[in-house]
Structures are given as structure tokens and as C-alpha cells.
Amino acid sequence: MRLGIVAGIVLLGVLAGCGPRPLPPDPTAEDLLAHGAKPISRMDLLERLSDKTVYGTFSVDTNTDKAGDAWTEYFAPDGQLWYRDRRTTFRGRWYLPDGRDELCLSFREGEERCAKLYELDGTLQFISAAQGPYQGRADSYADKTVDGDAEGFIPK
After folding, report:
1. What distance in Å separates the CA atoms of residue 115 and residue 107, rounded to the nearest whole number?
2. What does the pLDDT average to over 105-125?
3. Which of 14, 70, 152, 155 suits 56 as a labelling partner, its CA being 20 to 30 A distant?
4. pTM for the whole thing?
5. DSSP the chain
6. Which of 20-24, 62-66, 104-108 has the highest mean pLDDT?
């Protein structure tokens, strides 16, 4: 009887170690996939983003923002992008490159950033393709999307 209890405890310990490790704040695509995330295809990105306002949060400290800071983006159907965070508001462009399941943004005098998006538990995780410390890692996520220009970015 005692041997059975010990064996059961050992088995539970082994099984607990087999699951995915906790998701870090800046997960890689592999981390996300191990937790059941699904990559979002180019066509799904178009449907999910065009004429939508997306609300997100930085998951790590960046050059200008801190982990936990909120951001909002409006993806106009004509490719215009409006962005706002606690420090700045700007307008740019968004597009989906041919043959790639990526979202690209151009802003701030030609600066361009691209990301692969994954869905995990109702959030969109943005895996950065940009050169730098977050390349291949999620630097932010979005947990709310609403139809239209919900924040009134476009001047009337």
C-alpha cells in the first residue's frame, strides 16, 4: 500500500513536469504553440483587422513604453493606421505582404515593423519580426477588438 502511494506521488511529479512551462511575458512562437496558440493566416488577418479598433497591452518594457502600458490601433480598410498609447498618437499604414502570414506597419517617417500573430485564449499575440531585442518574441498582445473606428481617430 505504501509503495503504491509513493509510486503515485512520483508519477504525478513526472506528469506535472511534462506539461508546458509557464508562458513568459515575451513568449516565442514555439512557446505559444506549446500552449495551444494558433497562427493566424494572412486571409484571417485581413478579416480580423480591416475596419477594426484593436486594444492591446505591452508585455515587456520597450524603448518608449513599459510592460502593462495600453495601446490602441485602428486599421482602416484603405490601409491607413491610427495608433495611440500613453505618450503618443500617430498615423501610418498597415498591410499584409504577399505570400506571408504577417502584419506590417509603416510609420514615423518610413519606419516599418512586421509581426506574425497568434491567437491564444482570446488574445492576439504579436511576435515581432523586427531586428532588435524582441525579434522572434511577443512584445505585446491584444485582448479586445471592436468594429469600426471606435475611438474616433478619423477626423469627421
Report:
1. 14
2. 90
3. 155
4. 0.82
5. -HHHHHHHHHHHHHHHHHSPPPPPSS-BHHHHHHTT-EEPPHHHHHHHHTTEEEEEEESS--SS--TT-EEEEEE-TTSEEEEEESS-EEEEEEE--TT---EEEEETTTEEEEEEEEEETTEEEEEE-SSSTTTTBEEEEEEEEEES-TT--S--
6. 104-108
Q: What are 117's three cell numbers?
A: 500573430
What amino acid occupies position 20?
Answer: P
Give the separation between CA 32 and CA 138, rounded to whole angstroms. 9
C-alpha separations of 40 from 36, 89, 142 in Å: 13, 27, 13
Amino acid present at 23: L
Residue 126 has pLDDT above 70, yes or no: yes
Q: Name the amino acid, one letter, at 129.
A: A
Q: What is the pLDDT of residue 20?
A: 59
- Please list, in sequence order, all residues whose beta carbon lies within 8 angstroms of the beta carbon of residue 116, skipping any fewer than 6 positions away: 29, 39, 40, 101, 102, 103, 126, 127, 129
